[in-house]
Amino acid sequence: MRQIFISVSIVITLLFISLAYFFSPYWLTAFVLFGPLMLMGFKDMLQKKQSIKRNFPLIGRMRYVLEMIRPEIYQYFIESDTDGTPISRNDRAVIYQRAKKQIDTTPFGTQLNVYTEGYEWMTHSLQPIDFTKMTDHHPRVLVGDGRCSQPYLLSVLNVSAMSFGSLSQNAIEALNGGAKIGGFAHNTGEGGISPHHLKQGGDLIWQIGTGYFGARNEDGNFSDEAFSKNARQPSVKMIEIKLSQGAKPGHGGILPAVKNTPEVAAIRLVKAGTTVFSPPSHSAFSTPVELIKFIEKLRELSGGKPVGFKICMGIKSEFLAICKAMHELNSYTDFITIDGAEGGTGAAPPEFSNFVGMPLLDALAFADNALRGFGIRGKIKLIASGKVFTGFHIVRAIALGADACNSARAMMMALGCIQALRCNKNNCPTGVATQDPHLVKGLVVDDKKVRVANYHKNTVESFVELIGAAGIDSPSKIRRSHIYRRIFMNSVKSYEEIFPTVPNGSFLTEESIPQDYKAHLQQSCAEKFDAVA
Questions:
Q1: How far is 130 from 151, CA to CA, in rounded Å?
Q2: What's residue 275's pLDDT?
Q3: Nearest 5°: CA angle at 233, between 228 and 234?
Q4: For every residue of 44-79, which 3-state class applies, written as one string?
Q5: I need a surface site. Which of 35, 152, 254, 339 has the fewest CB within 10 A?
Q6: Is CATH 3.20.20.70 the classification given to domain 140-521?
Q7: pTM for this entry
């Protein structure tokens, strides 16, 4: 669009100059109308804060005109706030305002229907803690303590897994630059570590998927040497093995051919211009015991960095089998990332995206209970991933057992994503999810990395203010009883009632196993992933 605007401007200028020269100088008065428009267009192209205007001079201004009258549009559509869009209007407004450091307060009370089924809230105290007097405005959790020679202090909110290839190089650099400014971690996604992940110097969580990109040999199998070379880079702070993901659990990753450029292909060691399908399962291990031993191996090859795995919960007995393997071997993963089925920002078949996998809240409560049941909860950190946008979402996740959270969509929106839903078509108008160099130019790293850091800082501070309002001075004191949910019009329950916490060590003796877990435990085996639901 930038090239079209420049071409049209040149043609119009030459046309009116020619008409004035050959016919009448009055044709030059046309520049009274077209001159300011062309100047506005060139100004749009040169400014660095608004990707849409930068990529679509003049035309892109229509978007910001509509944004100016957003309150009126918002009120018109207020009754359809949960209309199926990836992020509700209320959450979108919060993300944009925090990224741009705008006022994020709202008038006229809550903008949600508090009597609708599914409405949630947290309790507050009559002895709240003043935010300004709270000592820790950026809570962190130590991952790998006791097992790793290089444990990592992980922020309570981090960038979730999004690969280079899926996202543009400028988007990756801006996310990593934001992580550097704000002191949080940036998950690479399964596409491997690119130079764009390293340029800004932010902390990385290197994700290893079934394709072993960046850790494989020419045959596509796992390579100890390739892994160790990347894992020992100073920017890599943790390693995450992706077992499954919320967008398409049980399917494997997809990189559309149109986004598989020569640069992306070189990083992944695949053929450029082809659709890249990661295998649905791993070849480096095939049983729960082998998974835990593989984690031990990676911890050693990385030089003592925390190693964990990411999973979208499926068959419950399989996760319990992993817990059995850890208990029997007395060897533990350093962290587990729970990816909700509602999560995922990449390309996915609609059936997998909509109907496969366990939603985050159910999965998080189950994982926390499973670890408690085996008496190993204190040895492993849980990270929640799946539509985490606000401070309340962090409180809710921690109430169900998380130690920290990852966010993908909110971070994309902090970059300037407008949910055009063209992530898989290579024509993202904001330059976030595209490899088209003309569109990528619209995303200016130096501006957007600050917005990512702003969003993180303001959201974490909101989280701290919320727990302070509940009279809590540490995230570790958040309990399921702090969150309530409307089940029906006349029925309200706490999360403790909806997702009861199991007693510590209750899975270790037959008589103490809660009834809801008995069948799944009987089907689980540390020596195999049992396919019985």
A1: 32
A2: 84
A3: 140
A4: HHHCCCCHHHHHCCCCCHHHHHHHHCHHHHHHHCHH
A5: 35
A6: yes
A7: 0.89
* Residue 139, token pair as written in the block: 């809570």
SS3 content of the chain, % helix, strand, coil (to 5): 45, 15, 45
d(CA 285, CA 293): 9
Structure tokens at 415: 């970059």
73, pLDDT greater than 80: no
CA distance 308 to 237: 12
How far is C-alpha 479 from the geometric centre of its chain's CA atoms? 24
Task: For residue 345, give Cα distances in angstroms to 85, 300, 532.
Answer: 13, 32, 30
Cα gap 400→367, rounded to integer Å:
9
Q: Which of 333, 395, 397, 408 is nearest to 362 (CA)?
A: 397
Closest to 217 measured CA to CA, from 208, 205, 228, 225: 225
Paired sense of beta strands 157-159 and 254-255, if any: unpaired
Task: List, in sequence order, every residue forming a beta bridge with 488; answer none if it has no partner.
Answer: 491
**What's the pLDDT tens digit per position in 319-344?**
999 999 999 999 999 999 999 988 66
For the stretch 399-426, pLDDT in tens is 999 999 999 999 999 999 888 878 878 8
What backbone torsions phi and psi does residue 237 show, to the nearest 5 degrees? -105, -30
Alpha helices in 350-482 (DSSP H): 350-355, 360-373, 391-399, 409-415, 437-440, 445-469
Give the tens place of pLDDT for each residue, 136-177.
Answer: 899 999 999 999 999 999 999 999 999 998 899 999 999 999
* Domain residue limits, the chain: 2-62, 140-521
Is the pLDDT reported for residue 510 higher than 90? yes
Is the model's pLDDT at 132 over the cut of 70?
Answer: yes
What would the 3-class secondary structure string for 154-176 be?
EECEEECCCCECCECHHHHHHHH
Q: What percent of the chain has pLDDT over 90?
A: 59
Does pLDDT of 105 surpass 80?
Answer: no
Residue 153 pairs in a beta bridge with 142
Strand order in the sheet with 491-494: 120-122, 483-488, 491-494
160 and 408 Cβ atoms separated by less than 8 Å:
yes
Measuring CA to CA, which residue among 291, 393, 381, 382 is closest to residue 342? Answer: 393
Per-residue pLDDT at 72: 43
> Using the 8-state DSSP alphabet, how is residue 124 labeled?
-
Question: Count of CB atoms within 10 A of residue 269's CB?
Answer: 16
Average pLDDT, the chain: 88
Which tokens in the block code for residue 358? 């366990």
Q: Which residue has the tokens 């996740």?
A: 397
With cut-offs at 50, 70 and 90, classify the pLDDT of residue 69.
low
Scan for tokens 């340029």, then name that residue: 199
